[in-house]
Amino acid sequence: QVQLVESGGGLVQPGGSLRLSCVASGIIFRRAAMAWYRQAPGKQREVVATITDGFNTNYQGSVKGRFTISRDNAKNTVYLQMNSLNIEDTAVYYCTSLGTSYWGQGTQVTVSS
Predict the structure, then answer these.
(1) Which residue, 57, 55, 43, 31, is CA-closest to 92?
(2) Per-residue model confidence as pLDDT tens digits over 41-63
(3) What is the spatial order of strands in the sheet that 3-7 belongs to?
């Protein structure tokens, strides 16, 4: 049974930071390309960042230079370090194993003063 469990969301002021975590089970994590997506109210789900099994990363333009995706294969965990958060980053953040239908339940990130 595949499970992806996100954590680390919360309420933060503009300019603040959060680190999201996603722990995977039931997949061969070290071989999996992983990604973070987000969905803001009234908007479609969009990709935020991806990381391959070879640790190559890619980012959506609006988060480049502010967000960092990383992975720890020993812990079956993918991270999203988010710095310089702004109100437009408010969304539910999901992790997924790329190329599969496996998604986490999401974690809410709210940026507000």
Answers:
(1) 43
(2) 999 999 999 999 999 999 999 99
(3) 3-7, 18-25, 77-82, 67-72
